[in-house]
Amino acid sequence: GVPPCINSTAQTNWLNRGDVRKALHIPATLPAWDICSDAVGERYNILYWTVKDVYLKLLSMGLRALVYNGDTDMACNFLGDQWFVEDLGIKETSKYKTWIYDDQVAGFYQRFGNITFLTVKGAGHMVPQWAPGPALHMFQTFLINDSY
Amino acid sequence: QYAPDEVTDLPGMTFKPNYRQWSGYLQAGPGKFLHYWFVTSQRDPTKDPVVLWLNGGPGCSSLDGFLSENGPFHVNDDGATLYENEFSWNKNANMLYLESPAGVGYSYSDDHNYETDDDKVAADNYQALQSFFVKFPNFTLNEFFIFGESYGGIYVPTLSLRVATGQAKINFQGFSVGNGLSSFALNDESLIYFGYYHGLFGEDLWRDLNDNCCNKGGCNFYNSSSDSCKIQVNIAFSIVYQSGLNEYSLYLDCEGRQGFSKTYEKAMTLLFRNYRKTLHTYKYSGPRLSSVSLN
């Protein structure tokens, strides 16, 4: 199955070539590749309707977290994740402010101790696909724990 | 590095990569084999972090992340040749893509029983991660991060908790979620405001939503017991997801098929799940929304 409005034809055709499957060490007995599996998706059992408690445990162990959202997505919109981070009840350690990429405003972010909420302006659900430059900058900044 | 899995050449690759890559299988639970694709950093693989990337669904493949989002090369429209991604995340990180759970993409289980749940997926992913570090012991000391997208909003924290509390020696530093599902309630509630303030609903529907779903204490667009509220929320839901908009990116055209895959439809009924009982009784009826009979 394919999510709506997503064109995955090219990668599906390439991944299903015999010589590509061989190069990737895929057993010949396996069925064709598809971007989404109905066999998994249809019968999946949800156990977590929120992961708030899991986040609180992880942050209490000193781990760092980044919650980022392309701000034109409607499957998982930025406002819901912004409310989620705010609802963790962690004191803010920065104001909500812009971050810059290539001399342009790339979005907004706010830090709450070890967790940062960040938006990527104009990007949709797949941020690295629709805002590749800002996404790489965001990624590198988070890995080295620098300021956005 | 685990030599048998090394990928030495790829059909359609007309450029010489400055990184190494492996593709093969990691043992998850008994009889479960998750396909992985590992590309080293283009900078300093011995020192740069190892990052696990998980797409969501549930039931969708992380190779979508590799081949159309942050991987080192993507596929041209011809479906045969590859081109380099100048903004690849393996510029300075070793990237591990895992197709999870079993049944997704090229991952499989011997019994072909693909029914699973959040905790089983987290447990399988944790086992697969340990299997990775057995195949690539040189990377055990590198800093380690877990990234995910969409339903990865559930996959990432639940796996992270196992890594953070488990026995395996992994130099775990942090996690990140992109456009993640972190709370079904907040996702549903916020979408109604997102839709109205992005001009998708108009004044009549907004007034009906407020009249039927809000009171002094605030609004409940998530699990209201009021049938009239459910009807209004369904209308809003159908405009966002069934009227031809690209719900993954509001200002982009809708490519590919509008058609729903079952996986996708299941995923979407997980959202607004309190209304999915009525979802199928109300299908968006196109532009004549204002005149649609609600009975």
Explain how this protein is built.
The complex is a heterodimer of chains A (148) and B (295). Chain A has helices at 9-15, 18-23, 38-41, 52-60, 78-87, 127-130, 132-143; strands spanning 64-70, 97-101, 104-112, 115-120. Chain A is of the alpha+beta class and 148 residues long. In chain A, strands 1-4-3-2 form a four-stranded mixed β-sheet. The radius of gyration of chain A is 19 Å and the shape is globular. Chain B has helices at residues 63-70, 118-135, 152-165, 184-197, 202-213, 227-242, 262-270, 276-279; strands at residues 21-27, 32-39, 50-54, 73-75, 82-84, 94-98, 108-109, 144-149, 172-178, 214-215, 218-219. In chain B, the strands form three sheets. In chain B, strands 1, 2, 3, 6, 7, 8 and 9 form a seven-stranded mixed β-sheet that branches. Chain B is globular, with a radius of gyration of 22 Å. Classes of the chains: A alpha+beta (148), B alpha/beta (295). Chains A and B meet through helix 1, helix 2, helix 3, helix 4 and strand 1 of A and strand 1, helix 1, strand 8, helix 3 and strand 9 of B.
